[in-house]
Amino acid sequence: MERPRAFRLEVSGWLAALEAEMRACFPEPRLPALFPFYGMMAYHLGWQDASFRPAEGPSGKRLRPLLCLLAMEAAGGDWERALPAAAAVELVHNFSLVHDDIEDRSSLRRGRPTLWSLWGVPQALNAGDGLFTLGRAALLRLRGHGFPAETVLEAVSLLDRAILRLCEGQYLDLAFQGRLDVDEAAYLQMIAAKTAALLEAAVELGALLAGGDAETRAALRSYGHALGMAFQVQDDVLGVWGEEERTGKPRAADIVERKLGLPAVYALERAGPAGRDVLERVYGGAGPVTEEEVAAVLTVLEEVGSRSYAEGMAARHCAEALEALGRLPAGPAQEALGEVARSLLGREA
After folding, report:
1. How far apart are CA 42 and CA 262, in angstroms?
2. DSSP 109
3. No. of helices (H) and no. of strands (E), the chain
């Protein structure tokens, strides 16, 4: 997702500070034998190549930490004081990606081989656990930015609740695989936990650290929820119709992996007998999905209007996010948060 020009200008100086804060969360390995352990995490974050040499690899959008910093500013705080929280959110997010790649058997992430495909499942699981631990420890660095222990404890509790919801959502996502009875309501509950929960936490952490009142925190929490819903629905669109050179994933990856995103859920509820037979055969089948099966599923999705329905839902959630922002005082950070929401629509990566 390319950031809008004004947004790029607003936060261009923040990314370097964020990366420095994230790197500062990593301890020096106590033993030479531990260099690969931290090297795997650094590889996933785009800091090293597969031989553990310094590199400038793809690092992702850094969307969640930037939202945390923008929320801090929008609620009247100084973004630099929220850097440990922003780093915590990003490290936790990347822990979830490492585990997600294992669970989905995804061989590519951001156009590069995933951790498990290079070093095996056991080591990738362990590296993901390391990112999780570093993320939680990052929040304790808030004490060095002048926050009282009570505020730090509230921040830890807020992030922990979001992590648990994220894991609940991932459980539901995995449980839905191979099932053809998942309806739209169940799908929306799943993505509210799997994706929206951490985005909610990112912006509420910024509001908390800024000393925002209950109304400000509620507005930003509503913004984060709606933004997360829009983000995941648009991600489902890209999982079917995204271009490999833009997404870093194979074409029609969600069909190939039999993932029940919103386009498939919508089609299963609305396809006629012939179309539903195609969907049941592919999503309920075993073994590799063939190119012919991918083409057949795409035809059914087109016939029932899955893409336009999903894009419409993303637009509605985006509008909800903007409405929530309207409850905050106007300013550069509030405007930038609005640009983030609008940029989700039609994104290609």
Report:
1. 33
2. E
3. 18, 2
Q: Which residue is it, tokens 């990366």?
A: 19
Q: Which helix (H) or strand (E) holds 324?
A: helix 306-325
Tell me the DSSP string of 223-248: HHHHHHHHHHHHHHHHHHH--HHHHS
Return the H-helix or E-strand segment holding 288: none
Q: What is the mean pLDDT of the segment spanning 46-75?
A: 95
Distance CA 64, CA 125 (A): 22
Residue ranges of the domains in the chain?
A: 5-344
Residues 57, 89, 17, 76, CA torsion sign: positive
Instruction: Say if residues 63 and 1 touch (Cβ distance below 8 Å).
Output: yes
Give the tokens for residue 257. 């992996």
- DSSP assigned state of 144: G
Domain 5-344, CATH among 1.10.600.10, 3.30.590.10, 3.40.50.150, 3.40.50.10700: 1.10.600.10
**pLDDT tens for residues 105-147?**
889 898 899 999 999 999 999 999 999 999 999 999 999 999 9
Residue 7: pLDDT over 60: no
The runs of H, that is alpha helices, within 33-177 are: 35-44, 63-74, 83-104, 115-119, 121-139, 149-176
